[in-house]
Amino acid sequence: MTGIINWNELWRMTRPHTPDMKTQGEYDRERAKWFNETVKTHKVRTEKQIVPIELDPEYTVLDVGAGTGRLAIPIAKKVKSVTAIDPSRNMLACLRANMKKEDIANIACINKRWEDIGLGVDVMPHDVVIASHSLAILDVQEALTKIDAAAKKSVYLFTFVKGIRGLMWLDDGLWNEIYDGNYQTWSDHAYLSNILHDMGIYANTKIWDSEFEQPYDSLNEMVNYWKELYNTPSEKEEILTEYLLKMSVEKDGTLYLSGKSKSAMVCWKKNHECTGKVHNI
User: Fold this and answer.
1) What is the pLDDT of residues 185-216, one digit of tens each?
2) Is the CA virtual torsion 87, 90, 94, 97 positive or negative?
3) CA–CA separation, 51 and 181 (whole Å)
4) Suppose 186 and one of 8, 80, 82, 163 were both cysteines; which one would form an S-S bond, judging by CB atoms 3.0 to 4.6 Å apart?
């Protein structure tokens, strides 16, 4: 049921436009490797996300947008099996390599977009479904409907507060200087909660602060990453570069960018009530 405000349509309107949404989420081999090495440094963040997820040795877990297995691999050590779905074959190649290093054999990988997954065909329902910062989907209500149908016990969604602007430390002054106040930001957890509410799913939300330290081999790598992520105009690249230099620190030939973000967990049980063991979050 849609209320006075169509939150799903608002979500669609606030998504950044890309030339081809079907290729969104694909990573080339080198970028996937860089991403894989980077997320390995996010151990504290990973632990905070896993703690509230109710797991059992007999559970099956479905990870939508699993990437290189940052959550899938530690979760696989606690449950019967994990199914990892991701649109990027290169990210899944890293996941398989990580499985081999960790001597894990209970993760099945599916190289598809969630939109193209046939429930009951490509994947069967699992006890728990998770999706961490991976719902870059235009019709998110359809995606959430399928996620709910795929879960037998509970669902846990992780996203940023304030959308993509909550990901980093960009202050409003710099933001306006680069984008003249016109940057199209990503929709955030509030959209998910309201869409779920219109679907008759009354989810719980938990918000917490996180800190991160991102390593880069060079200034060029750092600038290119954030330029691509924020679709920074080429004429404003110098402004972004100067700011990144100011915010980063060099240690033994590696540049580190430190920052803070606000994260949100939106969860529900299949009776549409989620307590979530939110220990120390």
Assistant:
1) 567 889 999 999 999 999 999 998 877 778 88
2) positive
3) 38
4) 163
**Which ranges constitute the DSSP H helices of the chain?**
7-13, 29-39, 43-50, 72-76, 89-102, 140-150, 172-179, 189-198, 219-229, 237-247
Q: Following DSSP, what letter does each residue of 128-148 receive, concatenated?
A: EEEEES----SSHHHHHHHHH
- Pick the closest to residue 41 from 267, 277, 278, 254 (CA basis): 254
Residue 25 domain boundaries: 7-163+185-209+262-269
Q: Is 1 helix (H, G, I), strand (E, B) or coil?
A: coil
CA 44 to chain centre: 16
Residue whose C-alpha is closest to residue 256's, from 222, 208, 209: 222
**86 domain-assigned:** yes
Residues 136-150: what's their mean pLDDT?
94
Domain annotation covers residue 30: yes
pLDDT tens track for 70-86: 999 999 999 999 999 99
List, in order, residues 6 or more apart from 256 with CB less than 8 Å away: 213, 214, 215, 216, 248, 249, 250
The CA–CA distances, whole Å, from 219 to 115, 238, 244, 246 equal: 36, 12, 8, 11
Amino acid letter, 279 = H
Both ends of the chain: CA-CA distance in Å?
A: 33
* 224 located within any domain: no
Classify each residue of 166-193 as buried b or exposed e, where b means 16 or more C-beta atoms within 10 Å of its C-beta. Answer: bbbebeeebbeebbeeebebbbbbbbbb
Total domains in the chain come to: 1
Provide the phi-psi class of 187: left if phi over 0, else alpha when psi is between -120 and 50, else beta: beta
Could you tell me the CATH number of the domain that includes residue 78?
3.40.50.150
